[in-house]
Amino acid sequence: MKRLDRTRHVLVLCLALLLLGGPFFPDWALFIATLAMAKGLAVLGLMLLMRAGLVSFGQGLYYCLGAYVVGTVGQFLHITDALVMLLFAGVVSCAVAALLGTLLAAYRGIFFAMLSLSFSMVLYGLLVKSPSLGSTDGFNIAVRSIAGFSAESHRRYLFFALSLVLAFGAGMAVHGFTGSNVGRLAAAVRDNELRVEYLGASVKTVVYLNILIAAALAGLGGGLTSVTVGHIDPDLAYWTTSGEFVFVAILSGTGSVLAPFLGSLVFEVLHSFAYQYSPNTWQMVVGFAMLFVIALLPTGLWSIFALGRKAG
Amino acid sequence: MANALQTIGLTKTFGAVTAASNISVEIEQDAIVGMIGGNGAGKTTFLNLITGYLKPTSGTIRHEGRDITSLSPRKVTRLGICRSFQIPQVFGSLTTYENLLVGTGIVARASGTWARQAINVADVDATAEQMIARFHLTAYRDSRSGILPEGVRKLLDIAMAMVLRPRILLLDEPTSGVSAEEKFALMDVVFEAIRGERVTVLFVEHDIEIIRRYARRVLAFYDGRIIADGAADTVLNDGKVRELVVGEAPRPSGAMGAGSC
Asked: What is the pTM of this model?
């Protein structure tokens, strides 16, 4: 119970400090942090699935879907408020997952990973072949306001604040979920499905629920990325995007809802600097960082804090 | 009052093998029934049929008058027929306490407004603590269940079945894998914990001494059939049972002793 409260306290503290400190950061730092929060949302969803023993190599599907929903409602419905756009992104991603989840919930292990990957690549294929959505070039997104407030000035900070509030809300919600009676079943499903059924709970329902939440989070993350960057293209659904989420999830560890955001931030910073100083070999730098983490912190970056807590 | 459990002509075949052959039996409320028989005699198959893990080739299963033949293990469990396993089925990466929390959480969810019970955790914690005390698991409360000794895992497995406040408790070889000197202690803890719960118990057991001490009624299985059914003393002294199940050949020619007991 003590740990539960602690996570909530840290979340509130992070939100307050970053909101207040935000105006003092340069624009480029705010941009990187906003992207990190957006991807962190997708990774948070992946963490939920991993708790249930499932690794999805296709979260890019919902990430890209969220981005394209934002783009589509902007382009065709002329909605230019970021919050409304994101609402659409979350709902549509969740709806698509509700459909695909009926199939996915029956698979485990490599079959779950490959099936989710194939769905994301189908979306990629469709988008590449859709001239009305810009094919491989994608298209730009115009955002004029956030929740009714004009976003014409202090743009970087406002998007940063939006990403913080979303990450905070998602973190609180997921933390509550993982501690609830339903949320606790994820680890049980990972360990022993037979026993879960013999305790009177439905394994399929548990898996399905986690798929839905993960999809909604990835959709939100994709939507947030698209309004921040102002441009979308089909690469958001490409397998390397999904792979990056898995990479960051392993880098982060599954110890806390804070871990995905921390891991995502570390990854974005690493990526940005690696790209700047060695544009042709940045993957190698990131790869070495991963090896380093696996060798020293097998359960992810978050274990630094877990160790500190045990020692203290 | 309808019987706790009734099977009518229950048959299960796997290709040419008949694992259960025309089993018709009635189990009265609050009975404590021991099930004996050699390996492959059909005891576990019988439990798997009752809990819906296997679908019978033919025959009917009734629970308190209700036909449960075609129900899944989950639905059978929800009706209050719960089981433990020969190889304990626990959540290995969770602690003893967390294992029980999973169970109590499911019960809480099934017995209240879904949304509220799904979030409310406080009374669930209390029930789990209670079960730990009742099954003498206090010393192992915060140990990962995957590394616990077999006897403790057996107890945890049974405690998890009891969390659901079952009407019928099925125990598949509760003392297998437990050292001889610990068997009685384990069974004492189990029967102590379920006393006053008004639960019908069926347990599979190879140790005849355990059967003699705890079972009031005994079903003797051989080759997928029930060859004797009655009070413990009567069945254990039955000639056929002694020959085929217990493995004490009354005649020198009785080389058929299939019993590993």
From this structure: 0.89
Q: What is the pLDDT of residues B90-104, one digit of tens each?
A: 999 999 999 999 988
Q: CB-based contact (8 Å) between B68 and chain A?
A: no
Residues 6 or more apart whose Cβ sits within 8 Å of residue B120: A181, B108, B112
Alpha-carbon distance B239 to nearest alpha carbon in chain A (angstroms): 38
Query: In chain B, at which residue ranges do the beta strands (DSSP E only) sit?
Result: 5-14, 17-27, 32-36, 58-63, 66-67, 81-84, 168-171, 200-204, 217-222, 225-231
For residue B66, list its beta bridge partners. Answer: B63
A200 and B164 within 8 Å at the Cβ level: the answer is yes
Tell me if A58 sits within 8 A of A244, measured CB to CB: no
- Residues in B closer than 8 angstroms to A187, CB to CB, are 91, 93-94, 98, 102
Q: Is A27 on the interface with B (CB under 8 A)?
A: no
pLDDT-based confidence at A307, cuts 50/70/90?
low
Q: Is the dihedral of CA A298, A302, A305, A311 positive or negative?
A: negative
Is B154 touching A (CB cutoff 8 A)? no
Per-residue pLDDT, averaged over B222-229, amounts to 92
Cβ burial, residue A2 (10 Å; 0-12/13-18/19+): exposed
Mean pLDDT along residues B8-37: 92
B44 touches chain A (CB under 8 A): no
| B153 in A contact zone (CB under 8 Å) | no
Q: How far apart are CA B84 and CA B89, in angstroms?
A: 8
Q: Using a CB-CB distance cutoff of 8 angstroms, which residues of chain A are in contact with residue B161?
A: 198
Would you kindly state where each structural domain of chain A is located, as residue ranges?
A: 2-239
A185·B102 Cβ contact <8 A: yes
CB-based contact, B82 to chain A, within 8 Å: yes
pLDDT score, position B112: 54
How many A×B Cβ pairs under 8 Å?
79
CB B63 within 8 A of CB B5: yes
Structural domains of chain B in order of their starting residue, each with its CATH number: 1-72+165-176+199-261 (3.40.50.300), 81-164 (no CATH)
Tell me how far apart the alpha carbons of residues A245 and A237 are, in angstroms, rounded to a whole number.
Answer: 12
**Amino acid A168: pLDDT:** 95
Is the interface score ipTM higher than 0.90? no
B200-204 and B168-171 beta bridge pairing:
parallel
